[in-house]
Amino acid sequence: MFGSYFPKSYSYCRFVHLMGEVNFPLFVLLTAYRLSCMSEGNYVDATKLVVSHNKRIPSHKTFAKAAKRGKSATGWFFGFKLHAVINHC
Description:
- This protein is an alpha+beta fold.
- The chain has one helix spanning 12-35; strands spanning 43-52, 68-72, 75-86.
- The protein starts with 11 loop residues before the first helix and ends with a strand.
- The longest helix has 24 residues, at 12-35.
- It has one domain (12-86).
- The protein is 27% helix and 30% strand.
């Protein structure tokens, strides 16, 4: 269906397998940024990570215990809110 739009995309099983290989490098990167010096000009941003359509919340099982209902500027969603703090580094 989306093959013509994303010719180099992975299948779901391959993506789940690759996520395990990326966890440690991501941990190292986040730790390095956490230990870096704080600057005067920090920028804070938040975005939503939707995991399911609102009508499918009762049947959603993957993130049933972790995901919550939330509200953003564009409306209600079921998922997570990702907060990022960005500095000059």
